[in-house]
Design goal:
Blueprint: H1 2-15, E1 19-24, E2 29-34, E3 39-47, E4 50-59, H2 65-77, E5 82-85, E6 91-99, H3 105-135
Antiparallel strand pairs: 1-2, 2-3, 3-4, 4-6, 5-6
Length: 137
């Protein structure tokens, strides 16, 4: 069953003109990019029951209350997915999960477009986080 989901997701991504830079059918993982949307090295895991998308955004050398507050407030505006921090608390990631059983082309496209919109609308703020962090070290 997992392999069928893997192929289904792969077909959707190709239909949406994403470039597959890495694939592992056994682990049901794809890494994709679409430069025109600013998406690079997006990791997609497609094992039943969830499809998980993770896009590494940046390293936060210093995590402040203000940065966390800003990210949480922005999460409220994001249509699909959310900002998360990894286990280290320093790597900022965009993450979205979708139900595999009901996944269709439009749902995966909406999630990817949400990420692209977030990257374009919020890039100035992310650059500020980066500058603030480098200045404070």
């Amino acid at each position: 069953m997992g392999n069928n989901y893997f192929q289904k997701v792969k077909d959707y991504l190709l239909e949406l003109d994403f470039q597959i830079t890495h694939e592992d059918a056994r682990d049901c993982v794809l890494v994709v990019e679409k430069e025109s949307l600013g998406i690079k090295n997006l990791v997609i895991g497609c094992t039943d029951p969830l499809l998980i998308m993770e896009q590494y955004i940046m390293e936060l050398p210093q995590v402040t209350v203000e940065i966390c507050q800003n990210l949480l407030q922005k999460n409220r505006d994001i249509i699909h997915g959310a900002f998360v921090l990894d286990e280290s608390g320093r790597r900022l990631i965009f993450r979205d999960t979708l139900q595999m059983a009901k996944l269709d082309l439009h749902e995966i496209e909406a999630s990817l477009n949400s990420l692209a919109l977030l990257l374009s609308e919020y890039s100035d703020q992310l650059i500020q986080f980066s500058k603030t962090n480098h200045q404070s070290q």
